[in-house]
Fold this sequence. Notes:
Blueprint: H1 3-9, H2 12-22, H3 28-40, H4 45-54, H5 60-72, E1 85-94, E2 101-110, H6 111-128, H7 136-156, H8 162-170, H9 172-179, E3 199-200
Antiparallel strand pairs: 1-2, 2-3
Zinc ion (ZN) binds next to strand 2 and helix 6.
Region (Disordered): 184-211
Amino acid sequence: xxxxxxxxxxxxxxxxxxxxxxxxxxxxxxxxxxxxxxxxxxxxxxxxxxxxxxxxxxxxxxxxxxxxxxxxxxxxxxxxxxxxxxxxxxxxxxxxxxxxxxxxxxxxxxxxxxxxxxxxxxxxxxxxxxxxxxxxxxxxxxxxxxxxxxxxxxxxxxxxxxxxxxxxxxxxxxxxxxxxxxxxxxxxxxxxxxxxxxxxxxxxxxxxxxx
Length: 211
Ligand SMILES: [Zn+2]
């Protein structure tokens, strides 16, 4: 019996179990066969995403599917669903006379939480950012600009920001954990680990402002 035959004879639950839990242990060939069977049964893009997250590559379509699932989830920070979840870059800077620190982090949270965090970072950067020479003022302006942009993104988005899409592509396993309460396929019971770490200290790949 070929591997394709074996997957074909498996129940839907068995296939979903392998897709979610064991795909990381399969050979690339086996992953291909498994993905083909899952596509043939139309189990949905999140199942394919679950497989490839374990092999650490998501297709663009899967990145979008995971990102949209995160947008619809309650906020990982405050647990509320009033405003959509998304990702924004929070920039902090503070001066230490000679060497200043400039630091950007991706925050995945609802618009309320992102607004609060961006405003706090702006206030702190205004107070503490200027005092290093010679980069402090430039970094402060860079931090203010970045946080203002994050604030603007809080106003409208029901769809993933570029920051969220980049975050999902760069951190597929963590992103899938955030998206996980959305069932992988209709009727599939989604197990949902609690205590998902939501604040990713992942560099966004943006050029460091002010240099
Ligand atoms: Zn929140």
